[in-house]
Amino acid sequence: MHPRRIRRFCVPNCLYFIQGASSGRLYHYPSGASEPPEGRAGFPDEYCDAVTRSKYILTVELRSGKVIPSHLSLDVVRKEQQADYGKIFEAILDNRWPSNPADKKTLQETATDLVVKNRALYYYDDELGTLRLVIPYRLRKAVLEEFHDDAFVNAHLGTEKTLEKMESRVYWPSMMSDVRDYVTTCEKCQKAKVNPGDRREEPLHIWPAVKGPMERVHLDILGPVPSRPDGPAHILVTEDAFSKWIVADPLSTTKAYDVADTFVKGVVTKHGAPREIVTNNGKQFTSRIFKEMAKVCGTDLKTVSPYHQAANGAVERQNRTLAAMIRTTTEEAGLDWPELLHQVVFAYNTAVNSATGQTPSYLMHGRDPRLPVDNRLQSPDEPSDPKDMIGYAEDLTNSLQKARNLVAERLQQKAALQKAFTDESRKLEEHTFRKGSLVLKWNETPRKWDPRWSGPFRVIDVARPRATIQDLAQLNDIRTVHLNKLKPFKTPFVPLLHRHEIQPPKHT
């Protein structure tokens, strides 16, 4: 941008000093002016104005975040007042009232506290002792935009601050409720702000109960984690929903083929194919390759809502536990974690789980493995006196079945308690979204000045705890999201006439 020609004046002494400078900050300022400075006699004072301190004038462009292209003026308001309130002007200025007693009484009630000044209609506010310009119906939305949207006036502040600025300046009968409705339906405010009640929590939905190992497993990718330049930076974590047994294997990459291959080698070939796999919406898990792997295994594949970790909370919690165990056992920087990963997993699987009351190893394999410390301390084995292999198998089956029945009952009880506690702590107000509702969607990773909500979207299906939504701006953009990530979108405000107000004439 090229600045206009600017004449600059400096106090002579300052001018000579600056022109002679060959170093320092002043010397390095880029010149944006097209004319050399001129000397002008100044005050006989050793101090000078800030402008005279610099050899150059910096061009500054001042912008309003949202300058309302307002055509509001007193003349415009006068014209609309004459159209809407002509009878009131006649009554106040010329003392001409309707001949019908009922009409006269209505007009007198309407004209109470109204005065005419400078050919404009004002409302006299007894409390403030001020005159407030009466705004006709057709100009009210423009006035609301001016007082709420404009960066100089209010910059999208809330209802109270908007109303405070308007109450001393303008008036119409339903102004307070109109301001409230306008602010709460402002699209920019709805998208940019997070108000109380916006982030409603859907009641906790628990997964169906499982009664044995490998009925359902939960998968997730942990990382990136610190690694050596040629080492793995991610871990594929698999947790069995029943036994809480986990499998964790390093991943060379997070591409779909590597993830599927690692799962088959680390889980399927050692423990069998699970009946159901639950994953997040990562590209690796929604890829054609991973779906084909699940199909070959005869496994149902289910995905949870994007950006809703609680839906796959079991493996998310184990990720945190596993990361903490690795962090506390590895050397500095943790770059040697691949060497210790399987030992850490073994330690987890041989520890009693608080949810089941048993070790994952026992529930998965029917026994607790001997630890190195058991051999060093020569710990005695559990008493066992099977008559033969068949008797051993029967005893093992019976004891394991009893344990698994107890665990299944315990898991159901803990899930019910967790749901009751979570729902109570959230003080839930169930979402009322239904097919056709307009909503905004929470932006999970916004940049600094980006809106926190996007949309509006239309709900095209609800299957709790998720909903399928369609972007109104791009109708081919259809996605499924958790209900916790949505809030109602309020349609733009339309001013309504107050019931005591004179009906303005219809303009053609």
Automatic annotation (TrEMBL):
Keywords: Coiled coil. It is an enzyme of class 2 (transferase). Pfam families: Integrase_H2C2, rve. Residues 209-368 form the Integrase catalytic domain. Its EC number is 2.7.7.49. One of its GO terms (molecular function) is nucleic acid binding. InterPro entries: Integrase_cat-core, Integrase_H2C2, Retrovirus_Pol_polyprotein, RNaseH-like_sf, RNaseH_sf. Residues 393-420 form a coiled coil. Gene3D superfamilies: 1.10.340.70, Ribonuclease H-like superfamily/Ribonuclease H. GO terms for biological process: DNA integration. Residues 357-387 are annotated as: Disordered. This is RNA-directed DNA polymerase.
